[in-house]
Amino acid sequence: MIVRISQEGQYKLPDDVLARVNELDNAVVAAVEAGDEGAFATRFAELLALVRDGGEQLPGDDLHPSDVILPPADITLDEARHEFTGEGLIPD
User: Fold this and answer.
1) Does any domain span residue 71?
2) Average pLDDT of 22-34?
3) In a domain, 72, yes or no
4) Does residue 54 form part of some domain?
5) Which of 39, 42, 62, 73 could be disulfide-bonded to 58 (CB atoms 3.0-4.6 Å)?
6) Residue 57 in 3-state DSSP?
7) Each residue of 46-68: pLDDT tens digit?
8) What is the spatial distance between Cα 36 and Cα 6, in angstroms, rounded to a whole number?
9) How far is CA 51 from CA 34, 36, 55, 81, in A?
C-alpha cells in the first residue's frame, strides 16, 4: 500500500504494518467522533510516526498513485472532523 502524508511525501508500507496502521486510523476516528482533542493528537501522531518509521519513503519523483492520503501533521481536530469519519481513511 502506498500512503501519502500531505506536505511530506509517499511511503510504501509492508503488509505486516497495515494492521497496526488500520488500528490507529480507527482510534483516530473514535477520538474525532468523541471530540477528544488530546486522544486525537496522540493517536494521529502515532499513525504518522508508524507510516514514517514502518514504511519506505519513496523518492519525490516517484509516480506511484497513493492508495491513501493522510492529512498533514498540523491538522486540527475541527479539520479532522471532515476527514476521519466512518471507517476512517484506511478501509477495513
Assistant:
1) yes
2) 93
3) yes
4) yes
5) 62
6) strand
7) 999 999 999 999 998 888 899 99
8) 23
9) 24, 22, 5, 21
